[in-house]
Amino acid sequence: MSSSQGVVTSAERHHAHHFESGLAEFEACKQAMWIFLVTEVLFFSGMFVLYAVLRVFYPQMMHDAHHLLDWKMGALNTVILICSSLTMALAVSAAQKGEKDNIVKYIWLTFFFSCGFLIVKFFEYSHKIHEGILPGAMWHFEELKAAKAPLFFSVYFVMTGIHGLHVIIGMGVMLWLIKRAKRNEFGPEYFTPVEMTGLYWHFVDLVWIYLFPLLYLVS
Amino acid sequence: MSTAPATAHGDNYINHSKGIMSWLGTLDHKRIGMMYLFTVMIFFLIGGIFALGIRLELFSPGMQYMTPDNYNRFFTYHGAIMVFMVIIPLIPAAMGNFILPMQLGAKDVAFPRWNLVSYYVYLSGALLAASTLFLKGVDTGWTFYTPYSIRSNSSATFVLLGAFIMGFSSILTGLNFIVTIHKLRAPGLTWGRLPLFVWALYATSIIQVLATPVLAITLLLLVLERTLGIGVFDPKLGGDPVLFQHFFWFYSHPAVYIMVLPGMGVISELVPVFSRKPIFGYKAIAGATFGIALVSFIVWGHHLFVSGQSEFANFVFSLITMFVAIPTGVKVFSWLGTMYKGSLRMTVPMLYVFGFLFVFTIGGLTGVFLAVVSIDVHLTDTYFVIAHFHYVMVGGTILAFLGGLHYWFPKFTGKMYQDGPAKLGCWLVMIGFNATFFPQFIVGTLGMPRRYADYLPQFTTLNRASTVGSWILAVGLFLTMINLWRSMKNGKPAGDNPWGALTLEWQTTSPPPFENFNYEPVVTEGPYEYTGEKAKG
Predict the structure, then answer these.
(1) Secondary element (H or E) of residue B87
(2) Is A11 a domain residue?
(3) CB-based contact (8 Å) between A35 and chain B?
(4) Separation between Cα atoms, residue A198 and residue A209, nearest integer Å
(5) How far apart are CA B237 and CA A62, in angstroms?
(6) For residues B414 and B30, is the Cβ–Cβ distance under 8 A?
(7) Is B447 exposed, middle or buried (0-12, 13-18, 19+ CB in 10 A)?
(8) ipTM
(9) How many domains in chain B?
(10) Residue B189: which residues within 8 A CB-CB, separation 6 or more?
(11) Separation of first and last alpha carbons in chain B
């Protein structure tokens, strides 16, 4: 690898002093990202265990309470997120090829899909809050008589809320990537941040793929 | 291991750049390690003051110096500070940060920037938790058991958030170490040649990465419980308080090994150096480290023997808990095997090794007592449990830490500590520690419960012995720290390798230069080949 061309995208110019090459640095980042995703899985697993415990304790309540969620909204968001995963994968591929315009285009698309997801979520949340379908002690919805139903919505709001937070963080990272891509920083020799964001984004989608049936399609 | 460096003693990590900002914004793993060390020591002092307060109140039955509410705050702060702010970061983040990359022959950890972030995350979490000292305080005990922690009219929310934030620091450090060990080993440093301290930090990092996220979500749920009343741990709203205990101990039991495995790693370094012999059972010790790490994840239920867990679960957890003794025993016997027929050098670090072996063995064996359900039911929440885990956590971690601190002191500072005060300090710590906690085994079996501000008059003598012991321990620690501080300022130059040690961190100048080595280290043999001329050292 030569750094004599003065190209910003050269891996030589990016790798930190304690790595022997840009490739070694990329490999280290990739391993770190996978370990980070493992910690994310364990973080969410606490909530999934909580969900499972409630299913075992109160199966009927979980069934009755889930009818208050609109599965069409959930399904719409599932489609939106799957599309965003596709555009993110295309962005990574464009970064590997060094196609600057395509990187920017596909990351913007992913960003807009994320906005769409949050808009749907906003309508769902505001409807619930308006009706008083709220977690635990804040519940004041009169029509559902199932005992302990507020617990279902504790789990619903915590899980989708933390997932939504991950979406928002991802969107922040996307804006940062767009800024760097416009400066022509990514190419075949250096695309680490795009690829790592891609891994993160697929994880965020995957969590939703589990959340949707578990929360919206209880039977 | 490789050729000795022939560099001038000039540039080192301490004088490489100047000014307070060059420390606060540093990316050098050695400086970050030192910043961790000093910060952790400050919290160690604060946590220790709370411990002295507890012992002072327990000098006599009845209430002397504080209200029962204040007593609750004292033991909560003592526990929370010592666990989250001191013992967990003590060896990995402070010592490991400095030593690990050097033992690997690397210039730095894999992600220096994240390393600095991890320090500031730790500091902000610790300050947030400590700020509650000036608010309403916290009185839940460091375990935050529900439902009391939901209703407690205190600043528990901030302490929970503080611990939540410090968890991210722990995860970042663990992640950084794993990648560093995988990707930044010097040429020739194969897995079979890694120093055992590296193996210990590797296993510790895996536990940090796998267990801490579960604590994070648990604490977050408890914060939401306190602020929004989500009810998942609150029996009044249909939640399950025992689920909290399961979640909490799923982290906090492995966390015991986050505390003790690095200590064992330090001991594995000290024993061969000061026995002038190759380590006995290298593979057995490395394997046992991972054995302990693995088993640590499946024993959490032994904290719930009296919490309404099923008989069958109790039986299984009891059995698995006893398995912990096997890899632990493998290590203890391997260290003894290393010393056997060695030419022992009775330096200060080696004195701490003997202290560790004596104290830790008592702590470990009483752990086997407590693993037996029929005995544990009787001893749950008595002072026997307190004595047991102090023998493990103080005996295991603090003594190993102090041994390591004296061992690596010349590496950190380039100076040698004053031998006389260091030896006196070590003896005072040993005597004080045993005087404090041994009586607690007895008073515990006699039935004195933990966390009570008062006790029956027949326990007075044993409690007084314990309190006097805590004073001796405090004097010993104080003397040790003053001695190290003074030696850091005016100690005699120690030379690059005062112990004749063979691991890579000693094959460079002391204190080390900015990028650790002025040459490219190449490894050709194992870390403990103390044979022939090298054994004389």
Answers:
(1) none
(2) no
(3) yes
(4) 16
(5) 15
(6) no
(7) middle
(8) 0.90
(9) 1
(10) B104, B105, B504, B523
(11) 14
- Count of residues making up chain A: 219
Q: Under a CB-based contact definition with an 8 Å cutoff, are residues B527 and B195 in contact?
A: yes
* Residues in chain B closer than 8 A to A43 (CB atoms): 213-214, 216-217
* A10 inside domain: no
Q: Is residue B14 part of a domain?
A: no
Taking only the tens place, the pLDDT of each residue in B5-61 is 444 457 899 888 888 999 999 999 999 999 999 999 999 999 999 999 999 999 999
Rounded (to 5) percent helix, strand, coil in chain B: 70, 0, 30
Task: For residue A8, tell me if it sits in a domain.
Answer: no
Listed residue (B40, B62, B22, B45) closest to B455, CA to CA: B62
Q: What is the CATH number of the domain that holds B127?
A: 1.20.210.10
CA distance B6 to A39: 44
As a dihedral over the C-alpha atoms of residue A183, residue A188, residue A191, residue A197, rounded to 10 degrees, the angle is 110
d(CA A48, CA A45): 5
The tally of domains found in chain A comes to 1
Residues of B in contact with A135 (CB under 8 A): 224, 228-231
In a domain, B456, yes or no: yes
Return d(Cα A109, Cα A120) in angstroms, integer: 17
Q: Chain A, 124-143: which have a CB under 8 Å from a chain B CB? A: 135-138
The reply to whether residue B183 touches residue A28, judged by beta carbons under 8 angstroms, is yes
Q: What is the pLDDT of residues B87-105, one digit of tens each?
A: 999 999 999 999 999 999 9
Does residue B20 sit within a domain? no
What count of other Cβ atoms lies within 10 Å of the Cβ of residue B99?
A: 29
**Is B4 domain-assigned?**
no
A195 within 8 A of A30, measured Cβ to Cβ: yes
Q: What angle do CA B167, B173, B179 make, to 5 degrees?
A: 135
